[in-house]
Amino acid sequence: MPALIEFPSCLLLALSFFFFLLNAFIVTTAAEIFTVGDENGWTMQVNYGAWTDKHNFTVGDILEFKYTRTEHNVYEVTKEVYQSCNASSGGVLAKYQTGNDQIELKEAKKHWFICEIDGHCLGGMRLAVDVAERQPTAAGTGSSGGGAGEPVPVSGGGGGNSGDSSCGWSNRSYAFGRCCSLFVYLVLVSACIWK
Ligand SMILES: *[C@@H]1O[C@H](CO)[C@@H](O)[C@H](O)[C@H]1NC(C)=O
Ligand SMILES: *[C@@H]1O[C@H](CO)[C@@H](O)[C@H](O)[C@H]1NC(C)=O
Ligand SMILES: *[C@@H]1O[C@H](CO)[C@@H](O)[C@H](O)[C@H]1NC(C)=O
Ligand SMILES: [Cu+2]
């Protein structure tokens, strides 16, 4: 009886499918890449306060600073330095100067960034982002979102990243990257059901 032999593997398949669904839901709310200043990039004459107000930042998101390497830089600083625009007596937490810096927001707290070139910070090149804890959402894991704030693993492991480009989708969101495997599972499961 082939059906008896096939049944457990079908069950296994269905189970892993559900795992993938769950995974996809969590991943939908996972890491986003924000290009600071959008098409303007990191430069003078941009209102970064207005830019920040348009977005919500959560742990795991990435800030991408794009600028001319010889003209600007990015320092992560303390609140004091952000306010004074004077980094000469400390308060610098990290320095970036590649012209295309991708900075992961790793902690749920306020982060402050300035351009440290003379006059640029006072001229508007400063950014304050309030980073929120990542909350479980639609997946139903924990749900109800009480007061707690347990961090949720952002991705199901290293495998997620390599899968990103396999679908030909841009790297906007990990969720799209998973579409291939999800699709394969769907096909396999329906094949099992229709047998
Ligand atoms: C940011 O979060 C607030 C409150 O949760 C929500 O009302 C708003 O629509 C969100 N904005 C974006 C751009 O997601
Ligand atoms: C920056 O701070 C240093 C040390 O506190 C001080 O000597 C310097 O005058 C300040 N620079 C400006 C432009 O205020
Ligand atoms: C996607 O990733 C590639 C290489 O990793 C990069 O060149 C490209 O700019 C990224 N696209 C977006 C929309 O971030
Ligand atoms: Cu600058």
From TrEMBL:
InterPro entries: Cupredoxin, Phytocyanin-like, Phytocyanin_dom. Keywords: Copper, Electron transport, Glycoprotein, Metal-binding, Signal, Transport. It comes from Linum trigynum. PROSITE patterns: PHYTOCYANIN. The keyword Lipid biosynthesis does not apply. Residues 138-159 are annotated as: Disordered. The keyword Aminoacyl-tRNA synthetase does not apply. This is Phytocyanin domain-containing protein. Residues 142-159 have a biased composition (Gly residues).
